Amino acid sequence: MKKIQLSVIVVASLGLSALAAAETGKGRPFKVELGAYFPSFSEAGISKKTGATFAFGYNFKNENSDAKMPVQLGLELRGSSFKASDATDEATITISQFLANADLSSPDGKLFYGVHLGFGKGSASSGNVTVSDDKTRFVYGAHVGYNFSPTVYGIAHYTTASQEVYRGFSVAVGYRF
After folding, report:
1. Which of 76, 85, 69 is nearest to 157 (CA)?
2. Residue 9 domain-assigned?
3. Given 3-state DSSP classes, what are the helix, strand and coil percentages for the chain, each rounded to the nearest 5?
4. Is residue 16 part of a domain?
5. What is the annotated signal peptide range for this record (predicted)?
6. Are residues 159 and 97 in contact, defined by beta-carbon separation less than 8 angstroms?
């Protein structure tokens, strides 16, 4: 009996997932990105190293996909991490961001570009000590990308904020599913 119930739940879940995917335009509403992060803030005596960035996002159904330059709206969670050091200590800086983005695509759909804005929090850890930013910061920026296929794309982001540590450039490869 439990196997039948489990089978019904699995089949129903797969069916609902397929319907939801069909409703999202291209059927690939989710995306993940992995890339390199280049912090761009400058502070005397602080050196910084290239880090890593990871993102998970969701694009909403585009109701006006027949337009010459359709707008694609989405939400994204982005995390970036890099090392910063001075003469005496090295710390790992971690930045977490929740972003809303709006993209425009070229008529052939290969090139896309847009803006993103949202909120971020950061922390620094060195040894056994972690210091977190007690405020949520407003972050914003721009991005440009290229679709290699319906599922794989490359993208470059620049993000800035009033707090310098949130400023940085990233280059990533993304996958839609």
Report:
1. 76
2. no
3. 15, 60, 30
4. no
5. 1-22
6. yes
